[in-house]
Each structure stands twice: as structure tokens, then as C-alpha cells.
């Protein structure tokens, strides 16, 4: 009996999330009501509220699940060369994760009624940049404000992700190499910024 109940819960949440994403694409977050979600998912409001306290709770769950795709970035190692095999592997994993869920990613990123996802994405990337690579050291060495560097690097990474989700004929390894080219030492030197992976 418990297994049947669990399956019903899984199915209900799946239908709710699917309906919400469809509505998000059609009309944007701020124009969606719980009634809209209930009608689209063919699940009554009581069932919706048994899973989510609010519309924002549903949205935040989807956002958190989507941002978990960036987890391989937390394994990047300070002091390692930018083209170290391990570093490249982590970035490729992220791009592969994003590609598998690119429809969800596109819907969240293209919502013109809310910038919440974009802000959380940028904040997550900024924290990773500070904690997992030497961006704070770069800021100290160059005198460039840390917040500015975080914005620059996280913005570039976000643009790479945006570009990647629309590509059908570019492998994840090729896309990773394009990203590394942007972050390469020569480009950074042109901007008067030292290699963020260098400890010297």
C-alpha cells in the first residue's frame, strides 16, 4: 500500500512540475496562479497544497534541482592548471548535465517576468569562483575589486551555458575548450588580469 501511495505522490509532483514549466514558458512566473497549475496538471488545489505550501516553494524546488547541475564545479582545484584534465572533466560534466535538462534551463532563463533564477545562478557561480579557484588572490594581486571579478567570470560562464543549450552539433568537450579559451592566460593578460588558476 505504501508503494502505491509513494507512486501517487511521485506522479502528482511530476504532473505539477510539468504543468508549471509549461505555464512558465507560456506566461511567465508572475502571471501564474495555483489555479492555473491545478487546471493544467488536472490535479485539484488540495493535492497541490499537500505537496507545496506556495507557488514559490514549487519554483524554488525546480530552481534548486537545476542549480545542482553545477555541483561538479565545486570539485575544481585551486592551483591546478586551467587545462588540467581533471578541471576539464568537471566542466564537461556540467555541460552534459545542462544539455540533458536544457528545456528546463531554457524556460527558467528566458522567463521575462522574473530574474530570480538568473540571480541565483550568478550567486551560485560567484560563490564557487571564490571558494574553488583563486579569484580572490587575483583580486588582491591586480587591485581589481573582487565583486567585479566575480561578476565578470560568472557572467562569462552563464553566457557559455546559454550558448551551449542552443547548440546541437557542438560536443561538450569542444564547448569546454571554447570556455577555456575565453579564460586563457592571454585573454586575461589583455584585460590586465592574471590567470585565475595560477598561485603565483
UniProtKB/TrEMBL annotation:
The molecular function terms in GO held by this entry are:
DNA binding
- Superkingdom as given in the UniProt entry: Bacteria
Q: Which Gene3D superfamilies does its entry note?
A: Tetracycline Repressor, domain 2
Residues of the DNA-binding region: 33-52
Which InterPro entries does this entry report, sorted A to Z? Homeodomain-like_sf, HTH-type_Tx_Regulator, HTH_TetR, TetR_C_Firmicutes
Under Pfam families, the record lists: TetR_C_8, TetR_N
Keywords, A to Z, come to: DNA-binding
Q: Which residue intervals define the domain HTH tetR-type in the entry?
A: 10-70
**Which protein are we looking at?**
TetR family transcriptional regulator
